[in-house]
From TrEMBL:
Name the record gives this protein: L-ascorbate peroxidase
UniProt family annotation: Belongs to the peroxidase family. Ascorbate peroxidase subfamily.
SUPFAM superfamilies assigned: Heme-dependent peroxidases
Record's function text: Plays a key role in hydrogen peroxide removal.
Protein keywords: Calcium, Chloroplast, Heme, Hydrogen peroxide, Iron, Membrane, Metal-binding, Oxidoreductase, Peroxidase, Plastid, Potassium, Transit peptide, Transmembrane, Transmembrane helix
Signal sequence region: none
Chief place where the protein resides: plastid
Catalytic activity line of the entry: L-ascorbate + H2O2 = L-dehydroascorbate + 2 H2O
Classification via PROSITE patterns: PEROXIDASE_1, PEROXIDASE_4
Cofactor or coenzyme needed: heme b
Species assigned in the record: Eutrema salsugineum
Cellular component, GO annotation: chloroplast
GO molecular function per UniProt: heme binding; L-ascorbate peroxidase activity; metal ion binding
Amino acid sequence: MAFSLSAASHSSLCSSASTKVSLSPAVSSSAPLVALSSSSSQPHSFSSLRSVKSSSLFPHFSFTQRKYPINGTKNRGCSTKCAASDAAQLRSAKEDIKVLLRTKFCHPIFVRLGWHDAGTYNKNIEEWPQRGGANGSLRFEAELKHAANAGLISALNLIQPIKDKYSNISYADLFQLASATAVEEAGGPEIPMKYGRVDVSVPDQCPEEGRLPDAGPPSPADHLRDVFYRMGLNDQEIVALSGAHTLGRARPERSGWGKPETKYTKTGPGEAGGQSWTVKWLKFDNSYFKDIKEKRDEDLLVLPTDAALFEDPSFKNYAEKYAEDPAAFFKDYAEAHAKLSNLGAKFDPPEGIIIDNDPAQGTPEKFVAAKYSTGKKELSESMKKKIRAEYEAIGGSPNKPLPTNYFLNIIIAISVLVLLFTFFGNNNSDYSGF
């Protein structure tokens, strides 16, 4: 759950620039993504959309970012439907996201991007896309203007060049791919993801505002259950997802929460300032639970919904467990994150697309000489290619013979086998008949 504070509540990680992001007056409500104005005139700032009372709990960070025209001349978005994403493009996009994370340190806002797209799901609504969930609707201005999504335009700016490069990936898949990859790259567990999510096609298909959780409601535990039970999640999953608050920091001038600066945030990466939940706020581990339990560091943030995890009897059972057992936390978090990422999604193909642990990219089979002793005078072409691949794998090539020691070892091995066969063959000849 890094159900973050409003996007505005998070610090600027991906850029140290102070350029303000604004909506272009020329962008219509049906544009696939919000365009950034290249002019400073008549800016439509997200600041007016931020609300201290409506801070979302989904993972975090809003930050300023260089201006990037999301809505331009390129084909960005789907017509009536973005069906099955291309598996090869998903794999390549994941590598590009890793590079982005390692250079921009935007793990928290990417986690939040995926969560806010999926977190609008309502299990009581059967029809797609009215039920909400992971369907790419967050790319539309109509949903970006929700108070809980303030600042997520920065995440879209970062991810859009990757979408442009890989046109056969839906926005819904790209948001979830970025979210899961951010957790993994921050040192978290591998998320058992599947892809193939279909995008909504028009802003009218965006969910109404108010489906995401708040950070400081009057009854924090009850509020968390109201929101997450509506999604079909249970107490264990609520607590496990909350552990993603190990990433990120909040800023009082943007969300009303946190300190302007602490000893852990006075330097980067990214723009300095804000208050983090953990000391190492770009590392995914179980520090969130340990730090809340100990309550010994005033420089670390604890929201009402964070404190509720150790105050509510049911939540506390899991929070205590995760504070003591990082392996249990990683296991439960990975399962809860994967479940959240699938909420409300429509998959094409229905079974989804798996891109991790692909058989085609698996470990090559160990070379076993006996497999190639066919007794035939001529090997098949496929067998020749396999033998050639094995030969090259141990250092040989058509223009470069194996080092002498390989041949020497082979000759010695053959000689030993011949001697053993001769010795045992002669010794056993007396017992060959009755």
